[in-house]
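pasting for the record
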Amino acid sequence: MRHVSDKTSLQDDLEYVILTEEQIRKRIAELAREIERDYAGKELVLVSILKGGVIFLADITREINIPHSYDMVGASSYGSQTSSSGRVTITKDVTVLLKHKCVLLVEDIYDTGSTLKVVKDLLEVHSPLSVEVCALLWKEKKKRHHEVPIKYIGFKIPDVFVVGYGLDYNEKYRNLRCIGVLKKEIYQ
């Protein structure tokens, strides 16, 4: 396993870029318009999953031009691996009141479905009016551990390990403005 050098750009560790900063920004604006249309006049709460969804949440909450609030849930299933362990640990629950409100779960990537299912089930305990999912990335997979309906999809991507825009490998690469495939020698 190669270590990230302080002398190289983080982007040098990418095999290739799947989505540029401009593509991401444009799609988030489009998603925001859809969300505004669907939730106009309703009490909307965005809920993101720490840590990967924070950047997506920050960008989409600023782009949505209707009143709403937001909160975060802590959940983990990857650890320092490149694929989900399938075991999800909840590390933080919401503190915003969700009862009788429309909840939109803002997720960075829909991969195995394990984390989304556990978090969605947790949010349902708070008696919201509805819980829908907005995933920036929808990873194309033949089989998932849990199928979860996704109302809003930013981009469909192949089943590859991606980093950037909040997504990490071993807590690195989250700050990349693009989303790219990490070189295998970095994590093998």
